[in-house]
């Protein structure tokens, strides 16, 4: 029992409670303070992950809670995600008619859920922590309760989310039924035993769990909610959803992969399954994005497509593949949040999310234009931006397994497809003439965030080893196969 | 930091500096870009001088002195660079075109100058990268880095009519091609890793070309593997050469791009493909090359003849030059396919010469297009009277393109023809010779219809290039063409030294195949006696 | 002798230096440009004269080759340098000598032209190129300058670049020459590799001297002949194609008449005196290659004969004074080629030299006339200029006499040499017939030149300008050339007239003697019957011309109506142009349009369709999510079931 | 806890088959309940009823958990069900809140009212 | 295991469930759902899961369903029928996929022997697990587990409930 390991979560939950209570005392026109508090909390969470007791790792709660390299990396990413979401939320929330305190509270609670997700080590914690994130997002998506779109998005997410939770649960039940335990430690011992035989029940359970987690990661077939919800949700929440929620799903996927995938038998079953999902996801997201006219919807489809690439690394399921996945996720955080920050601030001036309203952005507001361009190019996987390296590594890791080379071909085709629609946005920003004369007003805080994001994206793209030095040990710690075959 | 790395760093650094320069101080922006490209030109010349005075040995020595800088250790990415005679020629080409492009853009670009030069320099850095890196990751990295800025350069500063379509097509097409090549590169990478692990089970993988070549020399790559890998690498890189029928991105890309964009695109970008084939695919998969190259020699004919005839049917001056480029690249392909020192050196020399020539041509077209806003040949005419200087330069460029002696293009095309014949591609060589006639037909027609004939009043206000700044880029490029055309030996010696080992490898593979099949090789080349390990049996 | 190399390079590069100087420095200073060019040319002339002094005083067959390596790769080495021997010295003298005259003439003729400096730059470039051919040591170098000559010719024909006809003529000249060059390149490469295939890399070379030595080595040639006799013949004839185009032999002659669009001095220098003679020069240079092949020589001879006749016939129907001279040039070039085919390079060179003098003279004279008539070229609008331009008239008459081959003008001797060689030849099938053609052409030459002189200088002035004599810079060269035209015959008085036979023939012994085992070689002999035949034919020609145009005793219209279809054929120039136009328009352009169709409607379509397919799929995928949650749920469940089943069944 | 005398079932083979209840029976039953929930979700358009169907699905899973808990003779399954109920409660609260919000903005809770977002 | 509770509880749960999803009136659905929950509770109790069986009724049937009823009343829902089959293809497909899901599970369950071999037999379980007695899910037993081995999810569940509270307030409170 080592509760200090939960320091980041404690900080997050305490901050959530603090914000909730402070909200009661704050007059209506000073709610912005809550944003500052939340941002400070995020920094504190980030800092907490560096506290030696936490950073050294270990387990707590009788093995229910595990801090390893991957968990730490993801916790840091979640803290950064939340911070950047708060940065872009401030002005957005000020425009909301009500519920500012609740907004920050829920965001922080969702963050705490994600932090726990990164560390769960049994299915019970997994399920509950996941639901903390999911339920928070149900509320946050429908947060603009006067907006039909927002509420509709909330409802759609709710129904699909609950179905997927039920599937997940059913899968967990099967795993429990096949093994008699919910603790990952038991599973590890089980699959590493020499006499381990994979029963169909266990396999179906694992598959159902992956399918259920697909809801969070927006993988086919549980991706159906994504475009609608991305479009309908408040934009900062869409950003949070597209990064935080997705990464929470992926960290759980990786965790389960780590738990069961250490057995070659299971890995052999999982690889074609994940590859199939990855391929479908890639094509669905990238092809579906082509005809989009709404930037948030486009980002929804793009998010599905990006999920496909991360799955590529997951499916590869060897050390470098996981490292690539973590790398990709790191890149994705900065990339997607930069893009959404721009979306938030463009929409503040144009009151529109139509892609056509991005016309001339590069001229109208060079900083937003540059950030958006770099972000989209990073998503498209263009050097020298961080996203490129992530994509390269993921594709390379999948390539290492001959049985996945068809998937690599799918991935490569989709690089071109995705480049098309990202470039379509870039085209409007750079080539078309402006439709809106209004210059978006961007506060300094956001400017700094954007500049930092861009520096991270390009700096990381030029010197990927800086990121790789974080992801590779984390991946190595998981103890998966060191070579592809 | 070694001078090679500087070639990439200087433009990138300048681009980074430009970000900080306020957009309003355009003069500062221009001078920064020109200075940066000037520095690269200096470095390029320095290397050329090194190659001239010290020969290949000096280059090898220089390369050997550059350490591998580990970048991402776990997957074996390292920043390692090197030069041989071939890349020295390409470096010189790129630095020339980049410098000339900056000068041309200096007065031609008036809108969003800062963004323009940032992208332009990034493009230049990418191209330099391809020419110097010895790491497959960075090869692909630099390749893409060179392709994507092109999108915005064409899209924002190109001619409004077709720029969006052209830019999109170019970017997607080239990216698709690059990805096919990437597939091949990854094949090499993992096969090399397998080989490395034979010696040391704990060995980390490596993207380094030296490791790949070592594996290849050791016979780690089976014949079937080499065939596949070479086909992929070649197809991928051939897209940007551009090989028929993968060329459709190219003419329209030329047409839509701004002057300096076309200069870089046609002058340098198109050379990346053939360079990469020679740099990677030949030494890594000699058997694959020996197997596929006869087909390439056939396709090269399609490039030459088909490109020429399509050019003949064009009414848009930039399309004429665009298709002529794809026609000329047929000679490069033929030279590469010949696998003789003569032919391959000729191909590389042609890459250089065509690069300079076509940069000149597009610079000039851009110069008058900026004033006429028309590229439609029947609209133009008599321009030489308003712009005698530009007209004269254009005549020279046309003559160079038409393969008139005295310009480097002639010497290189002659080398290709000789090389092709030497390799036993007699028919192709004759067709290639005939291609020169076709070239002359459409080029002279275009030249006459644009610059000669009766003066047209609507173009009376057009101004000639004035002052050293407007003229310098053109004069510079013409001088280069003339100098290496009049006396090609320095350049060919430099190139030859770089090409010889590559050619020897593939020739050895050809001989091996000939021995195995018992057929006499069609090639009449004098086979250099270089021992090469026999390819491993099919695994 | 060390100076020879220097002389050689001075001859070669002096005009180039002039070009560079004019282009870089003196474009704005017109007068200076002209003098720079002339200085360059005179420098070359001086060097050439000094060289001649050494070469012609040395023993016959004297040859020096100075080379550097120009390019090398693999086992192939391409040299560059100067070859000093009698042939190059003689040809150099012709080029520099006639060239100097024409340069000086141009100063007057081109006065006031806008592109004066450009003109002299191009002219100097031409001189450089031409001298490059002359001094060349090897096939590739020859080819280089061969093409450069084409380029400078292009730039000078198209000198009046606002005139469509000039531009098109330049284009035509360039492209026609390109076709010849195509053959020539092919031939050179074929020759080289044929040697490689039989004798190996060591013997293969592009150098004239190496090749000549190879051909003298009967064993080596025998080895090639044994294996690749046909190939070698093909290579030889392909190289000859280059000469055909450059020397405007049928069927590649079409460019030369059109080339008269250029300024008249250009026509004189390039399209009469020097450039077009390059083909003849080349065959002389490579005569050792032709010699072993009687068939090849027969082709050459017949081509020459046919050209001589066809062109001469065309000269009758021209009204443009320059066109008359142009066809005359064609015809005379045919003569020279005929001589080559008959196995007598010295005769060809002799005629080349004399022709250079009198044809340049005639062209310059016509230029003077044209200038006098304010740029009127139509002879129907001239007449009676005898009084108004006496110097021009007399020099023109001298030129005409020389061209017609009337004793004692130079043309008489050189034409006699050619006819003589034809009369005694036995190797060429139909040599006697060709000899007859030669005589006939002599008659025709005299006739059309008579027509020309009579129309231009006699009768009444029919134009509207006020012609007057040209300035001294123009008449000076005329007089010089007239003197040369009269006395150039002295260069090679045949045996029987002079004691030791033709000086020229002796000087050029190296050209002819190379394949010593070749039986077709003969000595230049004076044959009285041939001389009388030729002279009579010429006088007859002049008489006929006088009857038609001088005294008007015979009606030209009546004659024309009698030979109507023939006249029509001549007016249409045997439909050569129509034929080529048809090829260009109907064949070439159709291929181009077809290729473009493939490009646009097939290749581009494929690419766009691939993109469209993706877009279509995108549109379909978009329709899946139609907003109804039930469909979403169904999709998701279906997905789950399908994927689970697929994976489980897949096991 | 509920003890019944079931020995009589053994007297008839058919009834014996009925009487031998294995974990598998429970699992099948749970999947049937799950499927009924699915059926509801797919066929109903009243959001509240869909919510109830979702609860049914969760219950299906719960049943399986308890059955496995018994089979494996450990309590983890039962504890899990406890958490599932807690989650279901929380979800239900939020879901109903969303439905109320939907009713506010659309004046109805039919899924047909929520088709604005599409494509 | 106890066949009576299985068949009875199963019938109640399944029948209640079916009726829940097919009633036109939402209130009727709630009532039938409560019946189904009672059936579930029966099943739980039949498996000696006392605590769960009780809270199934207390929390689910008692609290959550009351909440549902409140909301239905609040919204004043008019009876709605089955889904109007306006896109029969999709509905059929949906039904088919639900059926396929069951079939899949059925196939897996019957295909393997994990849960059938002696599954119902007390002795078999005891033998397999090596225990003396079957487990009993009484309050104390569950609580012991809950506060020892599974305290982390328990704590996280409190966060979840907090989320639900804040969320419900944020979404529905009239003045905020």
Structure in words:
The complex is a heteropentamer of chains A (485), B (539), C (651), D (119) and E (176). Chain A has 485 residues and is an all-alpha fold. Chain A has 20 helices and two strands. Chain A has helices at residues 7-25, 32-48, 52-55, 69-95, 100-119, 123-141, 148-179, 184-192, 200-217, 226-232, 235-261, 264-289, 295-316, 319-350, 361-364, 366-380, 386-399, 405-430, 444-462, 465-477; strands spanning 58-60, 65-67. The radius of gyration of chain A is 21 Å and the shape is globular. Helices cover 76% and strands 1% of the residues of chain B. In chain B, a hairpin with a 4-residue loop joins strand 1 (69-72) and strand 2. In chain B, helix 3 packs across helix 19 (489-517) and helix 4 packs parallel to helix 10 (259-284). Chain C has 651 residues and is mainly α. Helix content of chain C is 74%, strand content 3%. Chain C is built from 27 helices and two strands. A two-stranded antiparallel ribbon of chain C has the order 1-2. The termini of chain C are far apart. Chains in contact: A-B, A-C, A-D, A-E, B-C, C-D, C-E, D-E. At the B-C interface, helix 6, helix 11, helix 13, helix 16 and helix 17 of B face strand 1, helix 5, helix 6 and helix 26 of C.
Number of domains of chain D: 1
Distance between the termini of chain E: 53 Å
**Number of alpha- plus pi-helical segments of chain E:** 7
Number of strands of chain D: 0
**What best-fitting shape of chain D do the alpha-carbon axes yield?**
elongated
* Multimeric state: heteropentamer
Question: What are the defining features of this structure?
Answer:
heteropentamer; A: 485 residues; mainly alpha; 20 helices; 2 strands; 76% helix; D: 119 residues; Helix Hairpins
Compact overview of the structure:
Chain A contains 20 helices and 2 strands. Chain A is mostly helical. The two termini of chain A are about 40 Å apart.
């Amino acid at each position: 029992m080592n509760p200090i390991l939960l320091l980041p979560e404690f900080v997050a939950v305490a901050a959530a409670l603090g914000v909730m209570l402070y909200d009661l005392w704050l007059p209506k026109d000073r709610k912005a303070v809550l944003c500052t508090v939340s941002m400070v909390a995020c920094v504190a969470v980030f800092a907490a992950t560096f506290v030696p007791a936490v950073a050294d790792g270990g387990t707590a709660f009788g093995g229910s809670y595990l801090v390893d390299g991957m968990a730490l990396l993801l916790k840091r990413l979640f803290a950064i995600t939340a911070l950047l979401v708060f940065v872009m939320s401030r002005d957005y929330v000020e425009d909301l008619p009500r519920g500012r305190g609740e907004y920050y509270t829920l965001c922080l609670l969702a963050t705490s859920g994600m932090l726990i997700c990164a560390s769960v080590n049994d299915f019970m914690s997994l399920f509950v922590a996941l639901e903390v994130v999911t339920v928070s997002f149900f509320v946050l998506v429908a947060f603009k309760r006067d907006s039909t779109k927002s509420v509709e998005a909330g409802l759609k997410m709710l129904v699909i989310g609950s179905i997927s939770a039920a599937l997940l649960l059913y899968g967990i039940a099967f795993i429990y039924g096949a093994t008699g335990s919910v603790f990952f430690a038991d599973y590890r011992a089980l699959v590493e035993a020499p006499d381990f035989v994979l029963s169909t029940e266990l396999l179906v359970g694992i598959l159902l769990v992956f399918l259920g987690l697909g809801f969070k990661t927006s993988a086919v077939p549980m991706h159906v909610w994504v475009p609608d919800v991305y479009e309908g949700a408040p934009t900062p929440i869409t950003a949070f959803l597209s990064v935080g929620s997705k990464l929470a799903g992926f960290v759980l996927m990786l965790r389960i992969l780590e738990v069961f995938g250490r057995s070659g038998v299971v890995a052999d079953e999982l690889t074609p399954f994940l590859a199939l999902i990855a391929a479908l996801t890639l094509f669905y997201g990238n092809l579906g994005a082509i005809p989009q006219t709404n930037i948030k919807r486009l980002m929804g489809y793009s998010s599905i497509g990006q999920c496909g690439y991360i799955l590529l690394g997951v499916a590869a399921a060897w050390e470098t593949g996981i490292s690539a996945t973590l790398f990709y996720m790191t890149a994705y955080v900065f990339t997607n949040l930069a893009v959404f920050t721009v979306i938030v601030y463009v929409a503040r001036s144009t009151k529109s999310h139509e892609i056509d309203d991005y016309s001339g952005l590069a001229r109208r507001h060079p900083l937003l234009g540059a950030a958006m361009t770099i972000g989209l190019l990073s998503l498209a996987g263009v050097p020298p931006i961080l996203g490129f390296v992530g994509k390269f590594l993921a594709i390379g890791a999948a390539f290492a397994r001959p049985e996945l080379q068809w998937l690599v071909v799918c991935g490569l085709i989709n690089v071109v497809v995705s480049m098309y629609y990202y470039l379509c946005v870039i085209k409007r920003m750079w080539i078309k003439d402006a439709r809106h004369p209004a210059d978006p007003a961007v506060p300094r805080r956001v400017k700094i965030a954007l500049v930092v994001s861009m520096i991270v994206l390009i700096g990381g793209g030029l010197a990927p080893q800086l990121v790789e030095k974080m992801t590779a040990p984390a991946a190595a710690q998981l103890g998966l196969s060191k070579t592809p075959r | 930091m070694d001078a090679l790395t500087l070639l990439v760093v200087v433009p990138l650094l300048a681009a980074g500096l430009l970000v900080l320069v306020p957009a309003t101080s355009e003069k500062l922006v221009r001078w920064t870009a020109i200075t940066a490209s000037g520095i690269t030109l200096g470095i390029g010349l320095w290397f050329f001088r090194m190659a001239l005075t010290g020969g290949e040995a000096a280059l090898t020595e220089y390369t050997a002195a550059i350490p591998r800088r580990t970048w991402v250790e776990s997957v074996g990415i390292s920043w390692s660079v090197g030069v041989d005679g071939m890349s020295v020629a390409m470096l010189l080409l790129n630095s020339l075109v980049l410098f000339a492009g900056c000068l041309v853009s200096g007065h031609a670009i008036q809108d969003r100058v800062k963004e323009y030069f940032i992208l332009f320099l990034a493009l230049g850095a990418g191209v330099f990268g391809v020419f110097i890196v010895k790491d497959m990751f960075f090869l692909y990295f630099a390749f893409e880095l060179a392709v994507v800025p092109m999108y915005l350069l064409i899209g924002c500063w190109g001619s409004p009519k077709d720029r969006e379509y052209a830019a999109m097509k170019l970017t997607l097409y080239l990216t698709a091609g690059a990805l096919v090549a990437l597939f091949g590169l990854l094949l090499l990478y993992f096969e090399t890793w397998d080989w490395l692990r034979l010696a040391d089970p704990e060995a980390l993988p490596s993207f380094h070309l030296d490791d790949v070549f070592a594996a290849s020399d050791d016979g780690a790559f089976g014949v079937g593997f080499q065939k596949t890998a070479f086909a992929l690498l070649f197809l991928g890189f051939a897209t940007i050469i551009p090989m028929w029928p993968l060329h459709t991105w190219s003419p329209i890309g030329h047409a839509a791009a701004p002057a300096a964009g076309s200069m870089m695109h046609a002058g340098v970008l198109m050379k990346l493909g053939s360079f990469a084939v020679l740099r990677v695919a030949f030494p890594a998969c000699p058997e694959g090359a020996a197997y596929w190259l006869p087909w390439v020699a056939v396709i090269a004919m399609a490039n030459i003849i088909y490109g020429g005839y399509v050019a003949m049917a064009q009414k848009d001056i930039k399309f004429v030059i665009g298709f002529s480029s794809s026609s000329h690249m047929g000679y490069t392909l033929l030279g590469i396919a010949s696998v003789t020192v003569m032919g391959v050196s000729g191909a590389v020399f042609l890459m250089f010469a065509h690069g300079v020539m076509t940069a000149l041509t597009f610079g000039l077209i851009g110069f008058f297009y900026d004033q006429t806003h028309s590229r439609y040949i029947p609209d133009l005419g008599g321009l030489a009277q308003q712009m005698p200087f530009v007209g004269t330069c254009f005549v020279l460029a046309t003559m160079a393109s038409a393969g008139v002696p005295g310009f480097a293009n002639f010497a290189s095309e002659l080398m290709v023809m000789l090389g092709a014949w030497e390799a036993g591609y007699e028919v192709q060589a004759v067709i290639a010779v005939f291609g020169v006639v076709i070239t002359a037909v459409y080029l002279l027609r275009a030249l006459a219809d644009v610059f000669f004939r009766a003066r047209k009043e609507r173009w009376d206000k057009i101004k000639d290039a004035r002052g050293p700044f407007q003229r310098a880029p053109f004069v510079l490029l013409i001088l280069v063409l003339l100098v290496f055309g009049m006396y090609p030996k320095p350049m060919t010696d430099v190139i030859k030294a770089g090409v010889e080992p590559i050619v020897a490898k593939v020739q050895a593979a050809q001989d091996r195949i000939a021995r195995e099949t018992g057929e006499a090789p069609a090639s009449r080349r004098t086979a250099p006696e270089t021992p090469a390990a026999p390819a491993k049996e099919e695994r | 002798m060390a100076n020879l190399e220097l002389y050689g390079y001075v001859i070669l590069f002096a005009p180039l230096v002039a070009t560079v100087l004019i282009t870089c420095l003196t474009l704005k200073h017109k007068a200076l440009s002209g003098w720079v060019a002339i200085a360059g040319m005179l420098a070359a002339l001086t060097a050439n004269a000094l060289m001649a002094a050494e070469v012609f005083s040395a023993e016959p067959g004297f040859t020096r080759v100075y080379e550097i390596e120009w390019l090398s790769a693999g086992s192939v080495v391409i040299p560059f340098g100067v070859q000093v021997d009698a042939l190059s010295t003689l040809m150099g003298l012709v080029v520099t000598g006639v060239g100097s005259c024409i340069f000086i003439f141009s100063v007057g003729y081109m006065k006031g032209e806008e592109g004066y400096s450009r003109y002299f730059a191009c002219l100097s470039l031409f001189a450089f190129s031409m001298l490059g051919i002359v001094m060349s040591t090897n096939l590739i170098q020859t080819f280089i300058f061969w093409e450069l000559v084409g380029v400078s010719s292009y730039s000078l024909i198209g000198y009046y670049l606002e005139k469509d006809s000039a531009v098109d003529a330049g284009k035509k000249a360039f492209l026609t020459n390109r076709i010849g060059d195509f053959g020539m390149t092919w031939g050179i490469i074929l020759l080289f590799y044929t040697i490689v295939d039989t004798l190996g890399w060591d013997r293969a070379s592009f150098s004239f001297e190496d090749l000549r030595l190879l051909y003298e080595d009967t064993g080596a040639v025998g080895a090639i002949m044994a294996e690749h006799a046909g190939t070698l013949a093909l290579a030889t004839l392909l190289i000859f194609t280059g000469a055909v185009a450059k020397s405007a032999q049928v069927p590649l002659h079409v460019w030369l008449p059109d080339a008269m669009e250029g300024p008249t001095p250009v026509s004189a220098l390039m399209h009469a005196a020097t450039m077009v003679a390059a083909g003849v020069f080349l065959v002389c240079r490579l005569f050792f290659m032709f010699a072993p092949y009687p068939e090849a020589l027969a082709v050459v001879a017949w081509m020459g004969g046919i050209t001589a006749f066809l062109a001469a016939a065309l000269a009758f129907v021209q009204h443009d004074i320059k066109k008359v001279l142009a066809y005359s040039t064609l015809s005379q070039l045919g003569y020279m080629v005929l001589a080559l085919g008959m196995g007598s390079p010295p005769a060809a060179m002799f005629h080349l030299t004399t022709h250079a003098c009198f044809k340049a003279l005639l062209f310059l004279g016509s230029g003077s006339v044209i200038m006098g008539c304010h740029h009127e070229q139509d002879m129907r609008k001239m007449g009676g200029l005898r009084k108004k331009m006496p110097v021009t008239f007399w020099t023109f008459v001298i030129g005409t006499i020389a061209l017609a081959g009337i004793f004692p003008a130079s043309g008489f001797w050189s034409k006699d040499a050619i006819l003589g060689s034809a009369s005694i030849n036995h190797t060429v099938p139909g040599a006697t017939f060709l000899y007859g053609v030669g005589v006939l052409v002599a008659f025709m030459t005299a006739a059309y030149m008579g027509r020309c002189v009579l129309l231009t200088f006699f009768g009444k002035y029919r134009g509207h300008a006020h012609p007057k004599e040209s300035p001294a810079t123009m008449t000076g060269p005329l007089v010089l050339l007239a003197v040369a035209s009269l006395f150039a015959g002295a260069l090679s008085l045949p045996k029987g007239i002079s004691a030791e036979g033709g000086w020229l023939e002796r000087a050029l012994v190296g050209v002819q003697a190379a394949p010593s085992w070749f039986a077709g070689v003969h000595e230049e002999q004076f044959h009285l019957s041939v001389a009388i035949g030729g002279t009579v034919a010429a006088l007859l020609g002049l008489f006929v011309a006088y009857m038609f145009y001088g005294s008007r005793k015979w009606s030209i219209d009546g004659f024309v109506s009698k030979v109507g279809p023939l006249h029509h054929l001549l007016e249409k120039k045997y439909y050569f142009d129509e034929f080529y136009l048809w090829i260009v328009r109907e064949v070439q352009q159709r291929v181009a349009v077809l290729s473009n169709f493939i490009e646009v409607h097939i290749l581009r379509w494929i690419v766009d369709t691939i993109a469209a397919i993706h877009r279509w799929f995108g549109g379909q995928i978009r329709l899946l999510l139609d907003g109804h949650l039930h469909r979403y749920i169904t999709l998701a469940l279906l997905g789950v079931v399908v994927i689970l089943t697929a994976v489980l069944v897949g096991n | 806890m509920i003890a019944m005398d079931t020995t009589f079932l053994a007297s008839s083979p058919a009834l014996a088959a009925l009487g031998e209840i294995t974990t598998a029976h429970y699992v099948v039953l749970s999947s049937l309940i799950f499927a009924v929930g699915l059926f509801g979700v797919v066929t109903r358009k009243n959001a509240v009823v869909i919510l109830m169907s979702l609860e049914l699905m969760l219950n299906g899973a719960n049943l399986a958990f308890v059955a496995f808990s018994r089979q494996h003779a450990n309590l983890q399954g039962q504890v899990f069900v406890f958490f599932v109920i807690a989650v279901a409660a929380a979800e239900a609260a939020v879901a109903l809140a969303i439905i109320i919000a939907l009713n506010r903005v659309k004046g109805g809770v039919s899924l047909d009212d929520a088709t604005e977002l599409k494509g | 295991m106890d066949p009576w509770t299985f068949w009875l509880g199963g019938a109640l749960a399944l029948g209640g469930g079916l009726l829940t999803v097919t009633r036109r009136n939402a209130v009727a659905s709630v009532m039938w759902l409560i019946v189904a929950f009672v059936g579930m509770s029966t099943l739980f109790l039949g498996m000696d899961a006392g605590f769960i069986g009780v809270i199934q009724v207390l929390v689910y049937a008692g609290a959550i369903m009351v909440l549902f009823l409140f909301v239905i009343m609040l919204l004043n829902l008019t009876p709605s029928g089955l889904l109007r089959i306006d896109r029969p293809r999709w509905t059929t497909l949906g039904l088919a996929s639900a059926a396929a899901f069951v079939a899949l599970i059925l196939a897996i369950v019957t295909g393997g022997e994990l849960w059938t071999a002696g599954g119902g037999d007390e002795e078999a379980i005891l033998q397999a697990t090596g225990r003396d007695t079957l487990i009993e899910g009484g309050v104390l037993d569950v609580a012991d587990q809950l506060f020892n081995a599974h305290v982390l999810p328990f704590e996280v569940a409190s966060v979840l409930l907090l989320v639900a509270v804040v969320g419900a307030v944020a979404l529905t409170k009239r003045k905020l």
